[in-house]
Amino acid sequence: MNRNEPPIAQIAATLNSERRRSGLSIAEVARQAKIAKSTLSQLENGVGNPSIETLWSICIVLGIPVSRLLESPKQETKVIRHGEGVTVASKRNNYHATLLAACPPNVSRDIYWIEVEPGEPHYSEPHNQGVIEHVVITTGKARLGLVSESYELNEGDYISYPGDLPHLFEALQEGTRAMLISEYR
Hints:
By secondary structure, the chain is an alpha+beta fold. Helix content is about 25%, strand content about 35%. The protein has helices at about 10-20, 25-35, 35-45, 50-60, 65-70; strands at about 80, 85-90, 95-100, 110-115, 120-125, 130-140, 140-145, 150-155, 160, 165-170, 175-185.
């Protein structure tokens, strides 16, 4: 399996357990999602390559976010390079969705647009306990992450790290821009 393709074994296991948790049969979930029963059965058996529309339809019936099917096991720092990550295509060829991070229940997020130029790194003291920072480099190149574990990221790359530990952001190119999301747990 290409690492950019949906993790069908993970999707299968999660679909099966969430459907059983809901108390609905395969036939009932398929009917409500307006998909063939055989399609859902195949997905629960780890067969197929579902479109994002199919996954959304099923997840609406089950009352779960699509991200629950796609999110990788948790880790402290996560880097996703441009072109990597779990990508699910639309039935139309011009639309692809790549999950970067799912928002856990009872969490709030602040979103910031960052503009930074080369020079001294911006060092941040630890924020409140449980804060996670998510950053996508939109233009340029930067070194960022924990002071003890930083990464060089290019345009389109993503990183998440504990914001409650000392961290840094250093532009490596003029005109570096990024989207920063602070997640409060």
